[in-house]
Amino acid sequence: MKIAPETLNKASAYKLLTGVVVPRPIAWVSTISPNGVANLAPFSCFTFVSADPPMVGFNSGLRNQQRKDTARNILATRQFVVNIASFDLLDAVHASAADYAEDESEIEHLGLATHPADVVAPPRLADCPISLECVLDSHVPFGRSGSEFIVGEIKLFHVDDRLIVDGKVDTEILQPLMRLAGPTYAGLGKVVRLQKATEIVDRR
Ligand SMILES: Cc1cc2nc3c(=O)[nH]c(=O)nc-3n(C[C@H](O)[C@H](O)[C@H](O)COP(=O)(O)O)c2cc1C
Which CATH number covers residue 170? Predict the structure, then answer.
């Protein structure tokens, strides 16, 4: 099947892309509004964009032609925390995407425990094994949809000591939650370890 983008409307292009770019990690983003209301929402259009300095980014779309609370809070306060959930937090991650009013805190509604962050104002989630304290670097709109890619510089990594094996994050201990298309998720599947590609000798 060949699909020309000009034959797709916004919704069908979104469906196709979220089926193609899989699995996606999830940034579970906590922010705080200028009025002090803590907000939490998942964003699976998420990746890291730089190692020096460490930076992560996620894409926030519009809802009813308006910025989502997360994006609005970040642009107002320039601070956010990206929490990384393990698979056992699936129900809370999913529930936190419901449409809460701007002055309602998903964190309070869901009864999630938090710790104060060290360098930014939004709280970090106590049950997440990894949290990244971020300061806004840039926000870039793409295309005609009004969605914006929000990039933050990581000012502090919190990593549960139990995840660290031989100086690295052990993915099998982390058991990350991943998103597929729509309300479909996946856990870690088969893990295969190969020799480093740069160490493979060309025998031709
Ligand atoms: C697992 C998951 C991933 C999501 N990823 C995105 C995303 O990448 N971009 C986006 O704009 N919305 C995404 N959403 C929808 C937002 O989480 C949802 O619109 C949420 O209500 C926004 O909350 P806020 O208004 O408090 O920021 C996702 C939802 C779920 C359940």
Answer: 2.30.110.10
Alpha carbon separation from 135 to 57, 73, 85, 190 (Å, rounded): 11, 12, 20, 35
Condensed to tens digits (0 to 9), the pLDDT of residues 33-87 reads 999 999 999 999 999 999 999 999 999 999 999 999 999 999 999 999 999 999 9
Q: 3-state DSSP call for residue 58?
A: strand
- Within 8 A by CB and 6+ apart from 53, the residues are 153, 154
Note whether residue 204 is domain-resident.
Answer: no
Q: Which residue has the CA at smallest separation from atom 13 of ligand 1?
A: 43
Contacts of 21 (CB under 8 A, 6+ apart): none
Beta bridge partners, 60, equal: 148
Q: Which of 24, 26, 33, 43 to mutate to test the pocket of ligand 1 (most atoms within 8 A of CB)?
A: 43
- Give 164's contacts (C-beta < 8 A, 6+ positions apart): 170
In whole angstroms, what is the distance from residue 196 CA to residue 154 CA? 28
How many independent structural domains does the chain possess? 1
Residue numbers of the domain that contains 163: 5-199
